[in-house]
Amino acid sequence: MTRDLETAAATAGPRTGPEGGPAAPGHRRGWKRVVAVAAIAGPGLVAANAGNDAAGIATYASAGSQFVYGTLFFMVLVTVALVMVQEMAVRLGAYTGKGLGALIREQFSLRLTALAVFCLLLANTGLVVSEFAGIGAAFELLGVPKWAVIPPAAVLLWALVLFGSYRWAERIFLLMSLAFFAYPVAMVLGHPDWGQVGSHLLIPHVQGGQAFILLAVALIGTTVSPYMQFYAAAGVVDRGAKPEDYKLIRADAVIGAVFACVISLTIIIATASAIGGTGPLQSAAQAAEALKPVAGQGAELLFAFGLIGASALAGAVVPLSASYAVGEAAGVERSVSRRFRDAPLFLGLFTVQIILGAAVAMTPVDVIQLLIGTQVLQGLISPVVLVYLLVLTNRRTVLGAAANGPRYRIAATVVVLAVAAMSTILLVQTLLSWLGLG
Amino acid sequence: MTTSARLRNRRVQLVRRATTSKAVRGSLVSVAGLVGAPVANQAAEEVGRVVDVVARLYGADPYPPLTGLVIRIGRRRAFLMADAIEQVAAGRVRLRTARMDLREYERRPGEVLLARDVLDHQLVDVDGIQVTRAADLYLAPLADRIVLVGVDVSLPTLLRRLGPRRWQARPTPERVLDWQAVAPFAEHATDGPAQVRLRGPRSGLHQMRPADLADVLEDLGRSERQQLLAWLEPAAAADALEEMEPGELENLLREAGPKYAARMMEEMEPDEAVDALRDLGQGERESLLDRMPAAQATGLRSLLAHREGTAGGAMTTRLVTAGREHTVAQVRAMLAQQSEHRTEIDAVAVLDPDGRLLADVPLFHLTVAEDAATLGEMVDWLAQFGPQAVVGPDTRIDEAADQLLASRASSLLVVDEHERPVGRMLADDVLDTLLPERGRRHFRRFLQ
After folding, report:
1. Sign, Cα dihedral of B377, B381, B387, B393
2. What is the average per-residue pLDDT within A29-57?
3. How many Å apart are CA A117 and CA B4, to the nearest integer?
4. Model confidence pLDDT, tens digit, residues A257-313
5. What is the pLDDT of residues B367-385, one digit of tens each?
6. Residues of B in contact with A2 (CB under 8 A)
7. What 3-state DSSP class applies to B215?
């Protein structure tokens, strides 16, 4: 367990080892209890907060600029969904000691497993695209063209992961992405209309129109990303959490989900009060506006800084987590310390995702639209993964007494159906608009 | 051999291999391809479809014989005995008779549903020493029966199963493990006695090196890990546990249930057991210690009292001591009795009648000494090299390492303030504490 602590702690806050290195047993005494808690609590928190990456920021900022406070109530619903979904994922991990990929392979037919894996890969590759696009956009803010940045960034991330020094780079990226913690401050300094914020948070405001639904699906996609469930379950398993730890794990998952959503809400509100009502977000520079109350002229710099950190961090972790889930489902070697010949599927998938992600991000597309588009894709795929999650947590043969009770089952089904319904509406609308009927 | 002869030879071999593989392929029946396959009676009329294949895993036979099929007839599931089956071929089953004795399937001890319990589940490849998943299982006719011969773990086979129906039935033996080289897990048992156990001689598990076994244990899911542990003798399990990463070990002990955990702790060497106990919470530690024999628990408790990072915290309490009057032959006999602790014994401490240390005699000296020589003579001989290096229980490990280097020994005695030996610090334990944590760099480690 020690070996996981460092990264968990690096993300969650408290550090374990003296220099942040793997906490050697000798250094653990005093922190013992704190560390034990942090060791088990963590995956949920980290997984949920991983949603606040480049694509997430773009989506939340766009929600604020386009619909001002209009999406706030919807985000509250998304929060409930995220809490339930993450809770189910960590429950599976804690009670079975297996990752989601492994459970799906054991419990569903191979074809259904392949479908789940395919969805995950598709969604994740989209996400990798958006991470590289995020790196590109951040450097463009600093005046460096993206074609000069993305290829070296891709090679660098790939090499960092495969040749093992990624763990140090990761800390730097994490520190950089802390720049986004300026959003809550910016929200307060930006003097939003608190009355409006309150009423939009509590009273449903539903707007019709494709743009709103598109954004709503993107909000689901970025908040309830398919890879997060795989990630949360794997994290719990890896920490060796057992059923007795479940209360702690659940608390962590719930707090993590709520915390992530609160940050998302502050991004929406801060952006809404800065540039609300100016229509869809046009550029990263515009998104940076929201940070002006905190950083003034340095807002763009601060934003770029955070964006680079968040994107680089997720740019490595997201494709790896997909490779890991696929490797788990296929039952093949999965470790970055293996050679290509020993773990061809695992390392191959990782490499392909990075190449694809970087290549697509290089194309001359509207970056912000691309980022949101990715989240829409995620939103469309989410229901598929959620159905697996729901079926698994409903099964008594898998979870025994910890399986969903009747009431929880209904609630979770409603959540999954609601997410699926949103996706379907979006799909239908898109099809209609292609046919010129929309 | 000329080049052309070599080439010809090679071609002959290739052709031979291809034909063998074709012949083998022709006789194999894929279990994955069998699921959902039609079952026809003698009159070639379809009577139902295969749901699962039942085999008796742990009988006397080297390869588990097929005992029957679970088939779906309309909406009913019924069990079809093996002797009603005329032929099992790729993707179809033909029955011997038109009449069928259909019964509800009830699992008998030792029986496993191959598709539900083994296919796509984790198993341990004992020869290749790794944890893998069964991509397909192959049946083959052997004498008058159909037996399970092997497990396919290759990726192409997985892809084949994703393809259309007729691909599914076609065996693709790419990487097939002999059934005897595999330890499968199948836990979905009925209420009866535990169905799964490991057949002693077949299991290469017992021949696996502890470090390999530790790797395998780390890769398994929780229930599989517990099953594997239950199959092992506590002594073998303890050896593997000593090799595990501290975190993994901690998890495993916590999962294993206090009774079994205490049993394994008893088998572990004291210094390793103390390391493991240190990582557990106060309550768990006490509950394990309470379940151990009193003497052993007291020993471990006293070791636990030493701080980590000191010689006392890293030493083993297993000591072999002798007096001046003992002969080398006597000491050798004493050592012979301790052979199971050979990894912990590095030298023999010679004590005066008060129990104070006179000298620490390395095993090498004992090996080359005359049988009749007394330890007293050896102590006197060793005295010419000056006082021997010892450390106190509170000596820091890095200081102890310096001492170890300076004395060019492979272990150091730990003595109390009265020069009485309390334990021994072995070089590997010094290394363990000083080296940065290594282990395999799994992706998981920085997933977070």
Report:
1. negative
2. 59
3. 49
4. 888 899 899 999 999 998 888 888 888 888 888 888 888 888 888 889 888 888 888
5. 898 888 888 888 888 888 8
6. 245-247, 437
7. helix
B253 to chain A: closest CA residue: A240
Q: In this complex, do B250 and A1 lie within 8 Å of one another by their Cβ atoms?
A: yes
For residue A8, list chain B residues with Cβ-Cβ distance below 8 A. 448
Q: Record the tokens describing residue A62, joined without a space.
A: 């766009």
Cβ contacts (< 8 Å) between A336 and chain B: which residues?
A: 441-443
Between residues 114 and 153 of chain B, which touch chain A (CB distance below 8 Å)?
Answer: 120-122, 130, 132-135, 153
The residue-averaged pLDDT of A319-328 equals 86
Given a contact cutoff of 8 angstroms between Cβ atoms, the answer to whether B437 and A2 are in contact is yes
Chain B residues touching residue A320 (CB < 8 angstroms):
443, 447
- Tokens coding B376: 């007293």
Burial of residue A18 (CB within 10 Å: 0-12, 13-18, 19+) is exposed
Tell whether A46 lies on the interface with B, counting CB pairs under 8 A. Answer: yes
CB under 8 Å to B326, separation ≥6 — which residues? Answer: B374, B375
In the predicted model, what is the mean pLDDT of chain A? 81
CB B275 to CB A25 under 8 A? Answer: yes
Sequence-separated (6 or more) residues with CB below 8 Å from residue A236: A43, A44, A89, A90, A93, A94, A249
Asked if residue B438 has pLDDT above 60, the reply is no
Q: Does A34 touch chain B (CB under 8 A)?
A: no
Q: How confident is the model at residue B142 (pLDDT cuts 50, 70, 90)?
A: confident
User: Distances in Å between the alpha carbon of A303 and those of A57, A186, A282, A306, B288?
Assistant: 10, 12, 15, 5, 53
ipTM: 0.72
> Between A2, A8, A321, which is nearest B246 by CB?
A2
Contacts of residue A37, Cβ cutoff 8 Å, sequence gap at least 6: A248
Which candidate, A376, A375, A357, A362, places its Cα nearest to that of A137? A362
Chain B window 256-275: which residues touch A at a Cβ cutoff of 8 Å? 275
Q: What integer pLDDT is reported at residue A3 of this predicted model? A: 32
B432 interface with A at CB cutoff 8 Å: no
Q: Compare CB distances from A102 to B158, B221, B246 and report the shortest one's residue.
A: B221
Residue to substitute from A7, A11, A106, interface B, most B β-carbons within 10 A:
A106
* Tens digits of residue pLDDT in B322-349: 998 999 999 999 999 888 788 888 899 9
% of chain A surpassing 70 pLDDT: 85
State the pLDDT at residue B269.
Answer: 81
